[in-house]
Amino acid sequence: MDSEDRQYDSVVVTGGTGFLGLHTCQYFAEQGWDVTALDLKPFSEEDDTEDLEYIEGDVRNEESVSEAIEEADADVIVHSAAALPLWDDDEIWEVTVEGTRSVLWAAKEHDVERVVYISSTAVYGTHDTHPITEESPLDGVGPYGDAKIEAENVCRDFRRMGMCVPIIRPKTFIGPQRLGVFQVLFDWIEDGANIPMVGWGNNKYQLLHVHDLVRAIKMMFTLDKNEVNDAFNVGATEYRTMKEDFQASIDEAGTGKRVVGTPATLTRFTLRVLNKLNLSPLYPWVYETAHEDSYVSVEKLCDLGWEAKYSNQEALVDTYRWYLKNYEESEGSTGKDHRVAWDQGALQIVKWLFMKF
User: In this model, does residue 353 exceed pLDDT 90?
Assistant: First the structure.
């Protein structure tokens, strides 16, 4: 049986207990697959993991990955384990680049037929011409963007060895269980603060609902390998200006507050200083690009049959509703991943000021 005709039914998801990993695991399990999450920490108690397996392991350790592949008898892999931009530079490189290399070597040695790599539109940096396509120049912002570019190069090396390694480049994705920088936003909204933009908010900044992303990932396993052994942008197809889209969450809260524009140069300078002093959780990829247009073409993926079900506003409102229903702040609950709150530092003072007018 040719690989194109084979029906896969067993998947290992690296970073499987993180935000994207959890949604990926749950989605594939709902589709009837055998799903194994490989991660350094287990699922949270409140996660729906009845049909999921968990293996503790580090993607930087090829032996760990190999053991997970063997134990799961995996047909395919979703490589979603990743460092975040606010981590140390060395750790970003090790997890993103060396981790990807370890996963692909282990997959090759065990004849895993497809590995989907989750990259990022951070590989493009900022562009004057939009929409950004998969053929646009790559110019990553900071160590995070640079590491993602190099990890993609590693994927291409393994393609030349005969492997099928689709690359997914998602826009910033949100949805249930997403906290991190969006918890900061939702905390401000819930407390009745106006929401400041970097700049005036008239730029277009495309987002993505995680449920749309996981459907795109599954397509990489169901279509002919010659169609998917490539790079694909993923993002919402309906989006307006940042001012309009973020106002939707405020309107959902019913506080009567609004999105407030600020001088981009002054705001960026202030956030750079706070970042240097470790007084803000916002990293350069957030504040250096938030005032610019940032949207990609998803025509290439749509030509394969994918379509977005959520607009920017629908994704933001859906995530905010989950936050109101499920998030409870507890002592020691802050951290450095997308599924926990981030310590707001000096932004707490700024929030107080924006609650006063």
Answer: no
Nearest residue to 204 (alpha-carbon basis) of 127, 149, 268, 281: 127
Phi, psi of 315 (to 5 degrees): -65, -45
pLDDT value for 171: 97
Rounded to the nearest angstrom, the gap between the alpha carbon of residue 34 and the centroid of all alpha carbons in its chain is 23
Question: Tokens standing for 35?
Answer: 């799903």
Virtual CA dihedral for 231, 117, 227, 235, nearest 10 degrees? -60
Report the interhelical angle of 99-109 vs 62-72 (nearest 10°): 40
Chain-centroid distance of CA 144 in Å reads 12
Cα of 350 vs its chain's centroid, Å: 27
Express each pLDDT in 102-114 by its tens digit. 999 999 999 999 9
pTM for the model: 0.93
DSSP symbol at 5: G
DSSP assignment string, 95-160: IIIIHHHHHHHHHHHTT--EEEEE--GGGG---SSSSB-TTSPP--SHHHHHHHHHHHHHHHHHHT
Mean of pLDDT values over 172-188: 93
What's the rounded Cα separation, in Å, for the pair 83 and 8?
28
Question: Between the CA of residue 125 and those of 20, 144, 275, what are the distances in Å?
Answer: 22, 11, 20
Q: What dihedral do alpha carbons 287, 293, 296, 297 form, nearest 10°? A: 170
Report d(CA 20, CA 37) in Å as an integer: 11
